[in-house]
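Still learning. Show one?

>
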Amino acid sequence: MPRYCNKHKLTFQPAPKNDTDEWFCPKCKPVMEKRRAEKKEKSLKAATKASQISEQKKKKDEEAAARKEEFERKR
């Protein structure tokens, strides 16, 4: 299947060996790679933040359980 870019008005480009491969024109490719890198970085930051929040919640739950245990022991 021939490939072309409507944005930059590029004409026929040879199809990649594997036709299911994603193809971008030479002018669009750097932009798409930058977007992918930004998206990957953003998802990594979100995962890290979620992990930190989970650890904080676990720590708070453990502290609450320890306080409850201490309270029950003093009764």
Observations:
- Helices lie at 29-74.
